[in-house]
Amino acid sequence: MDSYKPWGLDRNTFLMLLHLSQLAWIIIPGAGFVLPVIMWATTKDQVPEIDRHGKMIFNWMISLFIYSIVSTILIVLGVGLLGLVVLALINVAFILIGAIRANEGVFWRYPLSIRFFQ
Question: CA-CA distance, 111 to 118, in Å (whole number)?
Answer without folding.
Answer: 15
